[in-house]
Amino acid sequence: MDEKRTILFVDDESRLLRSIERGMLDEPYYLLFAESGPEALKILAENEVHILVTDMRMPEMTGLELLKIVKEQYPRVVRIVLSGYTQASTLLTAINQGEIFRFITKPWKMEEDFKPAIRQAIEYYDREAQRDRLLAESAGSKSSP
Amino acid sequence: MDSMDAHRLRVLVVEDDVIDRKQMERLLAASSASPYDLEFTDRLDRALAILAERQFDILLLDLNLPDSEGLDTLSVVEKEHPDLPKVVVTGGDDEHMGLQAVTRGAQDYLVKGRFNARALARVIHYSIERKRSETLLRESRGKLNAILESIGDPMIMLDKDLRVTWSNEASRQVFCGDSVGRTCFELFHGRPTPCDLGPCIVREAFADGKPHSYDVRVVDREGQTRYFHCTANAALRDKDGRPSAVLEIAKDITDRKTAEIIKAAYDRVEKAHRELQEMQSQLVQSEKLASIGQLAAGVAHEMNTPVGFVACNFETLDGYMKKIRGLLEAYERLLQKVETAGEPGLHEAARAIQELKARIRLDFILQDLDSLFEDSREGLERVTDIIRNLRDFARADRAGDFAPHDINEGIKATLTVARNEIKYDAEVTTQFGEIPPVVCNPGQLNQVFLNLLINAVHAIRSQSRPAKGAITVRTYQAGTDVVCEIADDGPGIPRDHLRKIFDPFFTTKPPGKGTGLGLSVSYDIIVNKHHGRIAVESEEGRGAKFIVRLPLTYAPRTGESVEGVLTGVACDGRETDDIVCG
User: Fold this and answer.
1) What's the structural domain count of chain B?
2) What is the ipTM of this complex?
3) Portion 24-83 of A in contact with B at CB < 8 A
4) Which of B151, B177, B439, B549 is in the most buried spot, having the most CB atoms within 10 Å?
């Protein structure tokens, strides 16, 4: 699993995206950025993305809507929310409808919260991928004579 | 007997026996005391005819006549001429009939052959006089009765067995028709035996001979509800002075009572109206608090993103600076080598750099960078903290949900919000105990804490003292309650205010400075919405301590929401000062 993973960040505030870009400069990931839900979907269609980090409140398409589409179309993409909304109702819908992996609140701490969350998400992705591969292999070995 | 002296007595003698008539005539003539005008007749029908035509002073009546026998003879005359004095004349063998006649309207009787002229004269005169007395008595009794009957207030007379011996017209009209002979407990209370419940004014009057009264509601014979003020008083007494009859007078006070009832109803309506007004004010007040919370939450959310990327950039910048500093150190080493190498061109360049370093005070900058970053990081952390607390403070405002909540966190959030109001006047000491989460509406509870904190600091500020005051916030668990105490060392609350401080609109602040709703809203939130308790301990001059107790056992019904009621209520959030009261 030494290949580089790709993370897509979605937020309607470009300055926020740039701050993330700077903060993640030394991290061993490919970073992609989108300023809206539709733009994110376009990027997802053209690139292999492993981790999605999205804001909740955005014009055009809300984070929840994006999460639901991604869950549907790219179920293996590990989904993380980065939002200032900590109301129980917001959290619950994100968890229940978006099946998110982590919820990071704004403002966040890069070293303490953010990077560990990304790392864990990638570990999760890799574990899932490995499990799928093993399942496929065992299924393949069974089917072989 | 002046009236009799004025004229000759007119005597009608009804006697069918000629001998007896002659005898009577002789005896009357012999009586010289008064002269008589005598008239004789032998039959009852003729006597009646004569009486119908002319006036007589007395009638001497033989009971046994050709057309009438015995006492019936008297009855016929008595019926038609009740005011005429009558003396019956009987035979010697039926003297008992004379006695009976006296009980039936005759004034006296004579037995044939057993009276002389003097006795006859005396019987005549006494009979006339007796009749006159009887008439007078009857008239005065009638007059008295008429007076009593005409009195509009129902009256009944009761004997010792509580039986009605007399009643007036008003009583018959209002209560029960003719009630004489019946008992009051049967008449008025429908009981077979005397009332054993409560006091009875009639029995009391019999017992002590003094008047007793009470008010009673009666449905009269026409089905109308009427009110009476009944007074029972001893009317008659026996020879020992003990009451033998009690008169009960019922004064109709329906108008007064009706007025009282209308007044009471009016008072109730007015009270309800006042309560509604208070409730509305509280709703507006709650709404105001809610909108402050929402505003706080909105501001917090707006700040999340910019503060988010500033903090993130800052962290990166810190990293950048470390890298740049490393690079600078490398340059520094190079610079020293260049200076010692002694090559003229490079030497000059090195000196220019050294001059620049001195001018911009690079040593200081590099030295100061650490504390600059440290201070800025601290500032950003504080802003982050404020945002988080604002968010926590306002959290449940919109939802109005009950959820398990850490009261200590709520108080911390509230202290952040109130910090600016408090920091110049008081130092806050917190003693947070180990307490389990309480199922509550955190937004509402925070409003209560905010009210209490702001009240405390305002109380301290009112003293204009040179040094800061002290506010102590303490939380702990006591049995099945979580307790929060907020104490100040301000002026305290006067004893006569202690009872009123939770009343709506009670305030000691000048007009426009407080609505007097803060504590009543707090009371409502703690007591009504959270089934907790709120109390105050204070001594004038020694500060005040508010104690909020929240039960751990209280589980509100699902969907219990206060804010739901407020949806759509217009509000203005202009006067933030309104959230507190004195």
Assistant:
1) 3
2) 0.78
3) 25-26, 55, 83
4) B549
